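agent> fetching stored inputs for the zinc ion docking request
agent> found them:
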Amino acid sequence: MSTGDAQYIKNLNRRILIEHVIKEQTLSRSDLARVTGLNKATVSAQISKLIDDGIIRETKVGHIDSPGRKPILIEMNGQAGYSIGIDIDANEFRFVFIDLKGKPIERKVVPIDQGDVDEIISIIQYHLKPLIETYNESHKPIGLTGIAVGIHGIINSYDQIVFTPNQKWQYSNFKSKFEEVFNVPVVIDNNANLSAYGEQVYYENIQDLFCITLYSGIGLGIINNSKIYRGYDGFAGEIGHMVVNPDGELCSCGNKGCWELYASERALRNRFNAKFGSMPQNPAEIFEKPKYESELDSYIQYLAIGLNNIINIFNPQRIVLNGAMINQNPEVIQSIERHLKSKINSYETIHLSHLGEFACALGGAALVLKNYLNINTLDFVEYEYFNSHEKSAWT
Ligand SMILES: [Zn+2]
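agent> prediction call returned; pasting tokens
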């Protein structure tokens, strides 16, 4: 066997072992050999190296029923390092820190004004730098593995921002500026792509998933065969600019009557502002008060028109909807499904996001962690960080 092959197999085994340790949470070396099919010597050598690197640690002694030596269990070393995901929307940015076990350990929403790339990066730096210093002390020896930035716009295959309807950051060297400031690997991606990835890693654990974000615009993130689907040049999923009304309002993309002008939550807010002066403070009131009924019906009808098209094009298994208003109103799903009457609409379920407004930041942080560990799949579903009560993961 040539050296190249040996290194390839070593890396492959390392990847398989890390993926299994993450998935199983805690297990012994002999369990690991059994579930991976690798021989015990290989497992032992690889795990020793991963322990030296700080990625894996030995933990409590396991229980066995028969007499004999109790096995030492291993697990991911959560406190060895951390990753950051940032979601930059039109009027605020959100960020999340996760540790090496994927556990969310810090989050915040910071309001921002429109600004150029340098201004936004310096605001982010102002808020993040003190936290990074603190976490570099508490999460050793690896520290910060990298940062992912979710952009509400189109990012091409060369990591260039092609179109941002809100900020006009076309073709800026955003990624390299970010890397210069923070001195770690930086990933930039579309916010809906990262949201879809977050849902898959933390909650869904299926190979094909559609995630639709409904905040200032509408984005579609597609997970296909466990990977983010990007299309030929990275533009896939710009579903907010699907035309639903050819005589409609002019959109920043140059067309008229794009879906997001009618079905994004910003569109709903504009509609309520125009008719009632403002949106109700409590999103639940939108469904409770009869005076809002006709505006809400019309909004949901537009939402369903786009969903009908997506369903007929892709035949998705599962669709996750994520928006500040709808996340607070689970009955919205039934209202939408009442409008999906086509005999050829075929899908398994449509449901609301379990990660909510932090889905993009979480997905970004998870993607950075996956890249750092150099593995193919990350699966934190069994850790139940969000299953019982979302807030519990943040305390
Ligand atoms: Zn448009």
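agent> quick read of the result: The first helix runs from residue 3 to 24.
agent> awaiting further instructions
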